[in-house]
Amino acid sequence: MKKTSRVYVLTVHPSSRSALRLWTGKSLHALRHCSGRQISQMLAELQHSVDELYTRSRAPQPGASYSINRAR
User: Please, which pLDDT band fits residue 2 given cuts at 50, 70 and 90?
Assistant: First the structure.
């Protein structure tokens, strides 16, 4: 099962420099502004995606030694 990718863009609201807007979509050309109701769900999705990427990037490589005392 292939997981579809999603694009998230966080921008500063032009009229209020202190407000943020969250945009999401399947590509940069298909971005949609998130409503207030969707923002918490989208942020949770974004955090989950970032956590997955971090976990995959921190996974030990096959055959690599990660012993604390490997220099001894």
Answer: low
For the beta sheet containing 7-12, the strands, ordered from the edge strand earlier in sequence to the opposite edge, are 7-12, 20-25, 32-33
Q: What ranges do the domains of the chain cover?
A: 7-56
Given a contact cutoff of 8 angstroms between Cβ atoms, the answer to whether 31 and 9 are in contact is yes
Tell me: the pLDDT tens digits for 21-45? 888 888 888 888 888 778 888 888 8
Vertex 54: Cα angle to 22 and 19 (nearest 5)? 20
43 and 54 Cβ atoms separated by less than 8 Å = no
Checking if the pLDDT of 60 tops 60, the result is yes
With 0-12 CB in 10 A as exposed, 13-18 as middle and 19+ as buried, what is 24?
A: buried
